[in-house]
Write a structure and sequence with these properties.
It is a single chain. This protein is α+β, with helices and mostly antiparallel strands and 426 residues long. The protein has two domains: 129 residues, Uridine Diphospho-n-acetylenolpyruvylglucosamine Reductase, domain 2 (2-Layer Sandwich); 255 residues, Orthogonal Bundle (Cytochrome p450). The chain is 50% helix and 12% strand. Strands 1-2-8-5-3 form a five-stranded mixed sheet. Strands 4-12-9 form a three-stranded antiparallel sheet. A two-stranded antiparallel ribbon has the order 6-7. The relative contact order is 0.17. The model has no long low-confidence stretch (mean pLDDT 91). This is Cytochrome P450. InterPro entries: Cyt_P450, Cyt_P450_CS, Cyt_P450_E_grp-I, Cyt_P450_sf, Cytochrome_P450_monoxygenase.
Length: 426
């Protein structure tokens, strides 16, 4: 327990909370109001105290420096993903992360790059046919298929087949329905029975494919662990496999969907990235990476990250009592005008300006510290490779964009994105 001097924590008053409830009760609106009280501020849900942390130094303390105090306590996707890495805690989490981490380093990803490029080629061919026909495409569906294809090929060394695609989309719908944070008590529980049936069948199929393949794949890593380590039961292999699929594909596909919506609204940024250098050059790759980074700033993979204060602490001079729910919100931190000039503006150039590298605690679309997303490098790499292929070849003209944004486990466009693909030069 810390003995540092403390000041009174700013807290949303009951009248403001009532106005939020009357206005529809979206969590993002509540947190936006709370953020105005300061970088560390609170509100109450009955007897439950919740603290929102958006300031850079406090973010660092919670996610990187005091992880023994601010811990993950369960996870809303546990009924679907069980004991997989996303939901695991303590020593099991450390063992599971140690096993998988080498696969997601810069060097480890190179093993799977041929699989990523094969999925890129498949998507490019789909778009070539669609552009030639002048058809209206649901590009968000194409991007979800691409992301699923990448992870399926990386798991099994096989392309995504239609039946597996159908089952994974169905399971993903269950994942997408889960809220990031439920401020009301007595919420209706989500029925995961159908989603779990799809997950079980997909896991069985993936293991069968991996066992007959001579190509390297992530499932083979899990199967070797099951043969050598007593902790890796058949159930844990299933949970870990589906964590890699369900948690991995939705976030990448959503980020790509936002990126194409942003480029439709800001076509000059596509031209800027392509003019940065010739195809295959480091300059163009850096500019495309900046497009991805800026998209993730505005629409981070995990927009809200709950933690549980296991003991008393002090954050930015405010006492945090044990038992408090602590919320990190990269979506709000990334839009803080004190941390990011013109925060609502889509300006990828900011990531190539030497004087404006993101300071610690100001940019964390994949989390921060030891529990940061294991697949962050993998996700960014697959996005960059896809964009290097598609951006020069096609201009995406959005005909119908979702009118609303959904703030669930991910922050995503609430509906299909229908667009016409114009081949370069048209």
């Amino acid at each position: 327990m810390t003995t540092a001097a403390t000041s009174v924590l700013p807290e949303l008053d009951a009248e403001a909370f009532a106005r939020w409830r009357a206005g529809g009760g979206r969590v993002v609106d509540l947190l936006s109001v709370v953020r105005e009280l300061g970088p560390v501020a609170g509100f109450r849900l009955g007897d439950r105290r919740v603290v929102l942390v958006t300031g850079a130094s406090a973010v660092q303390q919670v996610l990187a420096k005091r992880t023994e105090v601010y811990v993950k306590r369960g996870h809303r996707v546990k009924p679907l993903l069980g004991g997989g890495l996303l939901c695991a805690a303590g020593e099991p989490w450390r063992r599971q992360r140690k096993l998988l981490q080498p696969q997601f380093t810069g060097q480890g990803i190179k093993v799977y790059e041929p699989q990523i490029r094969a999925a890129v080629a498949d998507t490019a061919e789909r778009w070539r046919v669609a552009a030639a026909a002048g058809e209206v495409r649901e590009v968000d569906a194409d991007l979800r298929h691409f992301s699923l294809d990448v992870i399926w090929r990386s798991l099994t060394a096989h392309p995504l087949d239609p039946e597996t695609h159908r089952r994974l989309v169905a399971a993903g719908e269950g994942f997408a329905a889960i809220p990031a944070f439920a401020p009301a008590s007595g919420d209706t529980e989500i029925d995961f029975r159908e989603a779990n049936e799809h997950v079980d069948r997909v896991a069985e199929h993936a293991i069968a494919l991996a066992e007959e393949s001579r190509e390297p794949g992530l499932v083979q890593v899990l199967l070797r662990a099951a043969a050598e380590l007593p902790d890796y039961t058949e159930r844990l292999v299933r949970d870990e496999l589906m964590t890699l699929v369900v948690a991995g594909y939705e976030t990448t596909a959503t980020a790509l969907s936002w990126l194409f919506l942003l480029l439709d609204a800001h076509p000059e940024q596509r031209e800027w990235a392509l003019a940065a250098g010739p195809a295959g050059s480091a300059e163009r790759a850096a500019a495309i990476r900046a497009l991805v980074d800026e998209t993730l700033r505005l629409y981070p993979v995990a927009w809200l990250m709950p933690r549980h204060a296991a003991e008393d602490d002090v954050l930015d001079g405010h006492r945090i009592e044990a038992g408090t729910t602590v919320l990190l919100a990269p979506y709000l931190t990334h839009r803080d005008a004190e941390l990011w000039p013109d925060p609502e503006e889509f300006r990828p150039q900011r990531f190539l300006e030497a004087e404006r590298r993101p300071a610690p605690g100001t940019y964390f679309p994949f989390g921060l510290g030891p529990r940061a997303c294991l697949g962050a490098q993998f996700s960014v790499r697959e996005m960059v490779l896809l964009l290097e292929e598609l951006l020069p070849a096609y201009r995406v003209q959005v005909r119908q964009a979702p009118a609303e944004t959904a703030y669930r486990l991910t922050v995503h466009p609430d509906g299909p994105i229908r667009a016409v693909l114009h081949a370069a030069g048209e």
